[in-house]
């Protein structure tokens, strides 16, 4: 059996280890709260009515619309052809990009300039599905735009839908 001296040393070591573990956990930053993961967006529908919605950072604009019950048509789908890794580097991920252009939106206001740049396949779908006078500087496909904290307060205009239910 252990002597009382060994037992005392063991308890002191365990207490010190617990103290060190507690200090380590208190000094590291906590996980983000739910509030830190949410942003506010203003959606303007074709009639001009405004609605403020909550978006989740890391989700697409299309997913945020779906969660809020806003129907903007079918999703463009398709895996991303590239992913932003740093401010200067886009990693090719070899996805085909969007496969349609039904979920067209126009982004303006605070945060609109923080959206990833328009890639070739997204630009091609916008041009194939929409007339030239319906495409603007802020035109994007909602399923391609991934929300970030910088987009808090952005205004999203939803144009009239094009016919997507042909037999």
UniProtKB/TrEMBL annotation:
- InterPro entries, from UniProt? Beta-grasp_dom_sf (IPR012675)
Under Gene3D superfamilies, the record lists: 3.10.20.30
Highest taxon of the lineage: Eukaryota
Question: Mind telling me what this protein is named?
Answer: Uncharacterized protein
Which species is this record about? Amphora coffeiformis
Lineage in the entry? Eukaryota, Sar, Stramenopiles, Ochrophyta, Bacillariophyta
